[in-house]
Amino acid sequence: MGPPPAQEVLKETFMMGADEAYLITDRKFGGADVLATSYTIAGGIKKASEGKLPDLIVCGKQTTDGDTAQVGPELSEFLGIPMVPNVTKIVEVKDASIVVEMDLGHCVEVVEMTYPCLITVEKGIYTPRLPSYKLQKATADKKIPWFTLNDFEDKNEKNYGLNGSPTQVKRIFNPEPNTDRETWEGTTDEVAEKLFQKLIDLKIV
Which of 4, 62, 113, 169 is a good FRET partner for 94, with 20 to 30 A between their CA atoms? Predict the structure, then answer.
């Protein structure tokens, strides 16, 4: 999903062994937040797969700009398939399912999912193969299909781009470090009440 020049990046995937690539592009998709982006990509996957979803969809964990790590999970919701985030290793690929390791920060969990499904992977999960000059020459004239809003089943412009984005970026800045902390003691109900009151005081709820 991107402007027309993004097809140059897709051509590099041919040089690395990809069989097909599709570009989802339309001015009406511009200004999309993570929700509208996920919805748009879901529409592109449905169009490319002609109604039959692929067994496995692999997404990166997060981008280097928005850094939200939300597109993969939201994409799985729009497609109605299970997903596992933060995958650090593919343990086994079976005929009807896949087994992966998921990094939970404090531990690693092994999960098995049936197809179709989606995973988001950590940056270091694999080292990509080098582009092939032979494949570059062989795929130099390979066409990349473009999908626009008119190609989608849902053509309601209010669901895409800026119109379909409930969030908008007003400002990007480095947060100031804050090491302040409070330690509370008491029963579960007492601590829960303190937490609830704290959220009210901070005007979070």
Answer: 62
Q: What is the DSSP letter of 6?
A: G
- pLDDT, one tens digit per residue, over 49-78 is 987 899 999 999 877 666 678 899 999 999
Kindly provide the b/e burial profile for residues 98-131, where b requires at least 16 CB atoms within 10 angstroms of the residue's own CB.
bebbbeeeeeeeeeebebbbbbbbbeebeeeeee
pLDDT tens by residue, 89-101 = 999 999 999 999 9
Q: What distance in Å separates the CA atoms of residue 154 and residue 42, rounded to the nearest whole number?
A: 11
Read off the tokens for 93: 């690929």
Angle at 155 between CA 73 and CA 82, to 5 degrees: 20
